Amino acid sequence: MNKSTLPPYLRPGDRVLLFDGECNLCHGLVRFLIRADRQGKILLATVQSEEGQAILRWLALPTDRFDSIVYLQQGQHWLRSAAFFQALRQLGWPFHLLAWARFLPQRLADAFYNTVASNRYRLFGRNQGTALPGEHLPGRYLHHRSE
């Protein structure tokens, strides 16, 4: 892979999930991923972080009002439900079986995702982006490498 094709802060072979650090639902997703991803294959970054903002700009995605997760791997990126399913594919047994849901019609999966995403603060609450799940675990967050 040509290194110049990588977004900022990423190295060849990195798998990164960008999530809303102020969203309680997203924190729950990240806690699940940390438990399920015992080998630490997926790096994490919030969309509000310096790294997340740089990656969003590199992908030409909005940086101010972002209501999707982004999964990046091998020079490709996925949004919304596709990002979630792609991340699930990286997990061990039995979690990667959930990725079979990616065969749902994408319009249906994204419609459900968008409905939840647009109501996530009202339904699950909002935090100040502090005390990120698993932040104490070495190597889980992209910003640990840029310090």
The rough form would be described as globular
Number of E strands = 4
Name the average pLDDT: 83
Largest sheet descriptor: 4 strands, mixed
Number of helices: 6
Uncertain regions spanning at least 5 consecutive residues: none
Question: SS-based structural class?
Answer: alpha+beta
Written as H for each helix and E for each strand, in order along the chain, the element string is EHEHEEHHHH
As laid out across the biggest beta sheet, the strand order is 2-1-3-4
Q: Distance between the terminal alpha carbons, to the nearest Å?
A: 25 Å
Helix content: 25-40%
Beta-strand residue percentage: 5-15%
Computed CA radius of gyration, to the nearest angstrom: 14 Å
Write the layout of secondary structure elements.
Blueprint: E1 15-19, H1 24-36, E2 42-46, H2 50-58, E3 70-73, E4 76-79, H3 80-88, H4 106-118, H5 120-124, H6 143-146
Parallel strand pairs: 1-2
Antiparallel strand pairs: 1-3, 3-4
How does this structure look, described?
By secondary structure, the chain is α+β, with helices and mostly antiparallel strands. Helix content is 36%, strand content 12%. The chain has 6 helices and 4 strands. The protein has helices at 24-36, 50-58, 80-88, 106-118, 120-124, 143-146; strands at residues 15-19, 42-46, 70-73, 76-79. The protein has a 4-stranded mixed β-sheet, with helices on both faces. A hairpin with a 2-residue loop joins strand 3 (70-73) and strand 4. It is globular, with a radius of gyration of 14 Å.
